[in-house]
Amino acid sequence: MPRFNTSMEQVLATLRQEGLCKIPNFLDSSEITKLKEEMVGAFSKMSTGDELCYPNESSKAYPFGKLCRVGHDDLHNFPVITNTFNNTWFSNFADIYFRCPNQQMLQVFFSHEYLKPDDVEGVTRNSVLHVDPYEALKYMIYINDCDENNGAFRYIKGSHSDGYQARTSHTVGTLLGDKYRLDQNPALASKYSENDVTYASASAGSLLIFTTDIIHGGGILKQDNTERMAIICHNRRR
Description:
27% helix, 7 helices, 26% strand, eight-stranded mixed beta sheet, 238 residues
């Protein structure tokens, strides 16, 4: 069973203050193995560079490795992933965080990165520092040990207040056009840079809970012969 070894009140307080809370040892080795097996089953039908919107829509949009996106209505095809996130703690916490009805388990992404940016044509859009154009609370689980060199999630601690201002001061269309990226948002770039990044290094089975108003970026591999596997569950305000 997943272990929430930090109280809900402590998680919420850390999230409000820093934008991200890390819970080590959330899953044990047998639970991690089952998740990995389910992910590998999907990845075995994909090629390097594929970004699959399950079950049919695929594009060559993820040069680091493979990415699979599963909408809520298709999650029943991934029972291990679904059972991991479909529990009372997660649903209650999302209700408390949003303070209103929300779309829990709206979609799940899982990825396997095994190529460095130098090995392919640069980085993906999710790897550059940015805020999301829509407010979301995300739950992320590492399937292998992650640090700065092999794809640990990157974020700027405490930047979510400014990220909120960036998101709400633009229409979604405008934000998607350029303002969601740190390097293309003058207000954010005047206060933050890559030098402010914290790497959410953690062992396999660790859980990250974060708001997407925080300035963040997907993991990037820096060393040869390394990899990262992770799962992210999206929850949004209705």
